[in-house]
User: Fold these one by one.
Assistant:
Number 1:
Amino acid sequence: QPVNTTSSDEYEYIVVGSGPGGGTLASRLARAGHKTLLIEAGDDQSANLNVTVPGYMAAVTEDKKLRWDIFVNHYKDQQRAQRDPKYVWETSPFEYHVGPGAPDGAEPRGILYPRAQTIGGCGTHNALIWILPHESDWNNIAGITGDSSWSAANMKQYEQKVFSWLHTQPTDPTILINDLSLAQQYVAGAAAAGIGPDPINAVTGLVNLLLNDPNSQINPQRDSTEGFFQVPLTMNAGTRTGVYQLIKETVKQGYPLTVQTNTFVTKIVIDQSNSTAPPKATGVEFQKGKYLYRASPLSVQKNPSTAGSAKATREVIVSGGAYNTPQLLKLSGIGPKQELEQFKIPVIKDLQGVGKNLQDRYEIPVNVQHTKDFNILKGCTFDSKPHDQCLKQWQNNPYILGQRGAYATNGLAAAIVKRSSYASDSNTDLIIFGGPVNFDGYYPGWAEHAIADHKHFSWYTLKAHTRNHAGTVELRSADPFDPPSVNFNYFDTGTTENGADQLDLQAIVQAINTSRSALAEYSHYGLLGGPPFTEEAPGPAVQTEAELQDYVKDRAWGHHASCTTPIGSDNDPNAVLDGQFRVRGVDGLRVVDASVFPQIPGVFIQAPIYIISEKAADVILSAAK
Ligand SMILES: Cc1cc2nc3c(=O)[nH]c(=O)nc-3n(C[C@H](O)[C@H](O)[C@H](O)COP(=O)(O)OP(=O)(O)OC[C@H]3O[C@@H](n4cnc5c(N)ncnc54)[C@H](O)[C@@H]3O)c2cc1C
């Protein structure tokens, strides 16, 4: 592909990646008057209906303009990995076969892990769920670093800062109660959580239950409170919100923020000329062009690119996300010496922890099929074509949430929150979402499958505070456009000390049992008139503890990859960052994104990322004074 050279430019700060981590930070730095360059591999998709319509949250992850297909291994042993029916084979570039029976010559790829390249990063294609972390998540970092500014009490201010520009709201209950079958599933879920309303007043009871806010600011026991809750979403009047809006507003209002889209950073430039000082990051090298990363299905077009560079007079901040941040650090000579040498990358700083400590949740569904369609989905084709009646309703009622219909929600309007018997502390560790979808994880075509008909309902679990920290992100080659090799090393192939793997596994099995008890409660609310259903997954054949454990081991997945350049204490050889997000041993370089956490925070991850980004802005601006 043609390559030209452009002249370099100079900024105070360069931020690589515009997701919840980088986008928030770059906007804050610019709003404080600093000349900032925000570099993003993707482009602006804020006018794309797949982005703005919450009901398209599945479709958007398959949109070629945003999507990066990253394939990961849950197990290194490929035979074991292929027990998962979601295992993917590539038959020709970006054409896939899912599950057993792949045609001859197909290449084994692993499990699809959706990622986004666009302004706002994965915050622009995610499921919109907004749940704050637990206090212990912050207090743990305070303990590890000895820095009390990480205490939960101090972190509140950053949470408030996020709320100053990011709008969140739950699904409007009136959208739900128009569908009595759905209402019946939800009240049954509340019953399984021990707070089911009286069947005679089920609908009013449900409306009241949906006032329960899992982010309650007034309940001092919020982190340990079990029950049935609404699900707050990054949404305003039924339209998606995210950091992409803050970035665009920051530019529009004239702050010194330059957003360079369609630009892929290939290397951090590091000056080693001062032999008496640590190496110092002074800028970045990049290639400007569309869809350059080979995870993009549009990279097959082999678009032209132009080489360029930019200088940072103060700092470079890497915010490429849990996979790309460690990859970029390694390509720039910062990472485990032995791995860098293997790829002939000159070692600038031997930091053993880069790309280790990868963590995620474990997720698993219980899916049923009703004999009749859900009313709420009538006319919804999820494809923005002229026949998509639900899109018309959404478009024709732009301001009143309750009138926008099924697309003014991500479909997962309520959740059971529980503390399993295997939780490591007093916090709740299971969240079980209910929604009219057929969701069984990520694989090519998952979105079409999830909404192919209107008869399915899913109770779907995320296990918080998982104990496995044995995942890795390693270079596949020294070519910056090659996605890295990602191994999660699930369950018994990962962290097993003190029975860690079994404790996580048993907790998830408990969640399946809770989901099934929610389904069993459905008939108690028969007055609502919902149709019968049959369980499809795990299915009636999967009953004993051993069968359920095998089911989970073979099919669980995650989508909150994190912790790959962790903050750690001075005496931790695997600590990559200090408590101020600084890369240890390299001046002028920080990481601000999902990678920074020593342990995966809370139940959902975007809220803690936005919060740490606000903190990082504070830290960086204080240092600049
Ligand atoms: C399908 C899906 C649904 C999700 N749903 C939820 C949810 O409902 N709630 C929740 O809390 N979390 C959710 N998440 C997770 C959450 O969205 C991510 O964890 C979060 O966005 C990560 O933020 P980040 O800033 O670390 O990185 P990202 O959001 O991944 O942003 C990184 C950005 O950096 C860019 N980039 C990377 N490398 C380079 C480079 N070398 N040069 C230039 N640019 C680069 C990328 O293009 C990207 O835009 C979901 C994730 C997925 C995949």
Number 2:
Amino acid sequence: VPVCALTAVSIYLISVRKKYSHIPGPPRDSFFLGHIPTFQKYLKQGKFFSEMAIEFIRKYGHVVKIEMAERIIVITADPQSIRELMITGNHSKSKAAYEKLGFLFGERFIGKGLAAETDQKVWVWRRALMNPCFQKSYIKGLESAFNTEIDLLINKLAGLADGKTQISMLEEFNHLTLDVIGKIGFGMQMNNVENRTEPSEYTKAIKLALGGVSAFLRDPFMKFKYSQWKYIADVKKAMKTLRVLSKQSFDERKKQIERGDYTPDDILNFLVKMKLENPELDGEVILDDITTFFLAGQETSANLLSFAMICLWQNKDVLERLKAEVSDVVGDKHYISIEDINKMEYLDMVIKETLRLYPPASNTFRENKTDIEIQGYKIPAGTSIMMSTFVSSRLEEFFPDPLKFDPERFNPAENRILSYTYFPFMLGPRSCIGKDFGVIEAKMILSKIVQRFNFEMDPNQSFDIEESATLKPKGGAFCSFTLCDS
Ligand code: HEM
């Protein structure tokens, strides 16, 4: 029996890999596991998947294949194929990549929510229903709520601004962005920044579930390890809790709307009304969406802000110029409007350059509906094709001196960015729906911080990147603050 099984697996692997034999890629370390041991070697050196991908692209060209046991991933940094896959062809998301995230450890997590839906027809319909929720006019209406939430962190930092107390800004930004999406998106008062009470059940569950995603991505075989079973059980319980609490919030809001009570014009209101107007929408999918917004809209913004602090501290000239711009536009007024934010051109360049070097959500996986050609290589239909803004943005041929933090690259007067080489929110119809929300939020937070404080970072912490569900600073971005003279 074992011999027959091994023969069958071998024949299967050979037949799958044969279809890709013409595509360049590194030699595999193991016949059965393919490049899994190669990836493990990189992990041991403290490197992560996207760093391995860059090395392969540099060595083998803009199209490479990686074999993860029976699964083949083609990685492309070829700009024209990126355009075809994300914009002109808008190919569906890869089932192999997103269905695992939808149902983590077999428990429904983001399920068939907007980010994980792989049926293109269903996604097109649902995205069309959701797009109005994130229109610019909606974001404009959030201005005052953004100010209120952000000022809670600013006041907290002011209380700690003794030039000595070390504060993990990664943690603080995570608390703030969770409060923002909870309050502004779903009417939930989470109070993580003020931290006066025990974290809410929702906060605890979302943190545990997010940790579970990261752990799974680092070690997809963890469910086979006995030592991990207790942790996995806790993560599954947290995912169940999230669902129960999301359903309670949904039902409560539905009742309020049906009674004609006042309800805030937030994402939850939008979702409830969407369901009432489209009864054929699956209620479970709406719960998937609630989890998706917490997942997609929180850590991404927190990581971007933490990296921005690091880049500014490492580049004092950029920090000074940014402080001068903020001072010119808003002076010392505490309420910052979206109009003010839109006037800050240099702030925009700083955010864009931070996202180039440190894109929190760096990869997307698409599946080509039909055979396509990339740089003369035939890619069979149904392949999982990865595109990475982290990889493309660190290639010398697209961004000269790529590791240099230089916001001038994004000077609008110069137009130096080659098309389809930079995509921190992805491109085309399936790009990030919350981009304006996330960017306005990040710009408002950063401008308030540089307006009010001087800061120093602990030079002994790690400034490396950690790749888990998102890219984040490994050392936690520890800072100490003093208040600016003015
Ligand atoms: C700086 C902050 C953010 C960054 C860098 C970011 C980045 C991204 C990226 C790269 C994707 C595509 C992922 C993929 O193809 O697998 C995406 C999708 C998505 N993002 Fe964001 N995001 C941010 C903020 C937000 C916020 C604030 C929200 C919600 C309030 C949000 C909601 C979503 C959703 C729902 C999707 C899935 C869209 C779809 O598939 O139609 N994001 N985001």
